[in-house]
Structure formats: structure tokens, C-alpha cells
Design a protein that fits this description.
By secondary structure, the protein is mostly helical. It has eleven helices and two strands. A two-stranded antiparallel sheet has the order 1-2.
């Protein structure tokens, strides 16, 4: 029953999040929408492919939009790049098979905007499922469903996270998954494995949004309080340390 409910929450949320049938433009999320194309087609983290065209055709000739950071030779994202890098393997087959690199830049840009909305709504709907799974461990099915309804449709998970790929959308998903596995470690026959998964998602949350380092530290403190063993802390901390070094 819980699996059916989880699937139902995912399907309903995804439909609701896409009822407007259009992306909501936001300069803040533009680099995250374009970077998978740059990484696949140019094999670089810079946004040189799109910068000149965007400034001339979309941004009214302004050569220094706030979402870009220009160096002497290249233009980069002004925002964290963890999420677009994680999503690039899912973009790459479609971009390669459709030979998107041969398309005009305006068509590439339109495709990037559409895929941004699709992936943002998928991430937000997955967060609803993660929230339901966590709530179900803490409360009855009726209470969990009521709380999930509030999370899915009465919070910015709908109005913001599902509409464009801000970093906090995926950050919420990874934090919820980390909390879920942290809670499961308390009654699991393989607590080190569940703590490893909790640390994996905590580390991903940090890679996606740097301020989530606060959550990583809080999770480590929780492990020390409730499972005061160095093995447990190491199982949790190894992934955040690895992802932190990669991001640095």
C-alpha cells in the first residue's frame, strides 16, 4: 500500500507541477539549464557557447548579466555547478542522438528551457515521495498523507522548486533522503550501510548547494549522539568528505 501511495503522490505531483505547460524563466537558474549542453558539446564548464547569443538576443545587449562570471578568456556560472554536472549524464544521450550541436543556438536555448522545467518538476515530485517515505516512518498513513499533501501543494516545492532548477529543489530532495536513511539506521540490521547512504545524500546536498554543509554537520552530530561509534561516523562522513574535496 505504501508503494502504491508513493507512486500516486509522484504521479499527482508531477501532473500538478506541469499544469501551466511552460517553463518560468529565471536568470538565476539559466547557467544550470545551459551547463549540461556545454559539458556535453564542448566538454568544458564554461558557457562561452551561449553567452554572446544570450546577451544580444535575450538580455537586451547587456554583456554582464548577473548570472555569469567572466574571466579573461571564458564565461562561467555565478552559481554552484554541482546539480547540472550530476544531471549531464541524463542529458547527454538525448543531446548526442539528436545532434543538438548542429542546431541554431535559439533552438538549443529553447530546448534547454523546456528540459529545465521537466527535470525541475521530476526532482520536486521525487522530493514528495521522499517526504512521504520519511513521514510514514514517523506517523500513521493518514497523518503521513496529510503532511505530504501540505508539503507537495502548500509549500514552495510547487510554486518554486518544481518550476525552475534552483539549487534548493534538489537540495531538499537529497536532505530528505539523507534523513530517511539516518532514521532507518536506528532499526536496520546493516546500520553502517544505511549510514553510508545517509552520508551519500548529505554529501550530494552539499555539492548541490554549499550552505547545506550545515546539514551535513548536523547529521554527523546526530550520528555521534545516537550511534557513538567511530565506524558509524566514518560510514556517514566518507561521502561528504569526498564530495567536499571534489567541489573544492
Amino acid at each position: 500500500m505504501s508503494r502504491r501511495l508513493a507512486f500516486a503522490w509522484f504521479a499527482v505531483s508531477l501532473v500538478v507541477y506541469n499544469l501551466n505547460l511552460r517553463p518560468i524563466a529565471s536568470g538565476d537558474t539559466l547557467p544550470a539549464a545551459l551547463l549540461p549542453f556545454s559539458l556535453t558539446l564542448d566538454h568544458r564548464l564554461h558557457l562561452d557557447r551561449f553567452h554572446g547569443w544570450y546577451c544580444e538576443n535575450v538580455h537586451g545587449g547587456d554583456a554582464a548579466p548577473h548570472m555569469f562570471r567572466a574571466t579573461a578568456n571564458h564565461v562561467f556560472s555565478a552559481y554552484p555547478v554541482g546539480l547540472p554536472r550530476l544531471l549531464t549524464p541524463f542529458y547527454a544521450p538525448l543531446i548526442v542522438l539528436l545532434r543538438v550541436g548542429e542546431w541554431p543556438l535559439d533552438i538549443q536555448y529553447a530546448m534547454a528551457m523546456s528540459l529545465e522545467k521537466v527535470t525541475a518538476s521530476l526532482i520536486a515530485a521525487a522530493a514528495v515521495v521522499a517526504f512521504f517515505a520519511l513521514a510514514r516512518r514517523l506517523a500513521s498513513a493518514r497523518v503521513a498523507c496529510a503532511l505530504t499533501f501540505l508539503f507537495a501543494l502548500v509549500t514552495p516545492n510547487w510554486s518554486i522548486s518544481s518550476q525552475a532548477r534552483w539549487t534548493h529543489g534538489a537540495g531538499v530532495l537529497t536532505i530528505l533522503l539523507s534523513l530517511y536513511w539516518l532514521h532507518r539506521s536506528s532499526d536496520s540490521s546493516r546500520p553502517l550501510w544505511t549510514l553510508f547512504l545517509a552520508g551519500l545524500f548529505a554529501g550530494l546536498s552539499r555539492a548541490i548547494r554549499p550552505t547545506n554543509a550545515c546539514f551535513v554537520v548536523a547529521g554527523g552530530l546526530a550520528v555521534l549522539c545516537f550511534q557513538p561509534r567511530w565506524k558509524a561516523l566514518c560510514a556517514y562522513a566518507v561521502r561528504p568528505l569526498v564530495f567536499g574535496l571534489l567541489v573544492a
